[in-house]
Amino acid sequence: MPPRSYPTARQKRLGVELRKLRERAGMTGSTAAAFLGGERAQMSHIESGRYGVSAERVRRLASHYSATDRHLVDALAAMAEERTKGWWEEYRGVLPPGFLDLAELEHHATYMRRIHMLHIPGLFQTKEYARELILGGVLDLPAAELNPRVEHRMARRGIFDRPRPPEFEALVHEAALRMRYCATDTMREQLEFLHEVSRWPSVTVRVIPFDAQITGSVQSMLYAGAVIPPLDTVQIDSAFDGGFLDAEAQLVWYRSLLDSVREITLTPDESRKTIRRIAREM
Length: 282
Known about the structure:
Helix content is 49%, strand content 11%. The chain is elongated. The chain has helices at 9-24, 29-35, 40-47, 55-64, 70-81, 97-108, 127-137, 143-155, 174-178, 184-197, 248-262, 268-281, and strands spanning 111-116, 167-173, 203-208, 221-225, 233-236, 243-245. A hairpin with a 6-residue loop joins strand 5 and strand 6. It has twelve helices and six strands.
């Protein structure tokens, strides 16, 4: 089987975690490949996500590396067993890979925490608001590309239709509620929808008021919790794609950032009142 040309972020992550286990064991790629009866190139492809690997091989490698974290090994084996393609694969070759990776990340997240400084969270955008936002970020985008971007963004919200949707906390700056990316009616409709979303059982929306003092540089980002903390992921917003971070030091830093920003937000009830008030002022 030829190597994958474009492994997903999740496939790459599995390979990265297997490489970390190997390096902690002090083994070379050649040694690990020989254990599997292959060559160094095979191990390189596995660790880059370009080759799939079975759950049984993950467990064999973990045992060979003397990995003692059973929860991590179980989680990696579960990742290796994933074979079903998600709905987002319909957009492969149509949208940038980062868009698909984000949908996959949200699909597998056990909980999510977001900071949004200048716009409404993508999962909670109305179709018209999303359309205007996308057009403003990518000039002269043809309809053949615009429509799939809007459809994809709307489809991502399907995670909240599950019997047990993930917990989602959105920390949204007041500026995002007032920025005029679209006509007044569209913006008012968007804010009314955000107000409705804030009442969903698994969703918490907290507004960062203008008069709150923000320490340091705060950027829009997503923290996606995994089945175990070492597999958590941070995604940094971009108009064209998305960057994914997973180093332990980065995860610790962004968890601390989220906690510090949360301390300066309004309560959920106060936030709902603020959203409704701003909508009525439109």
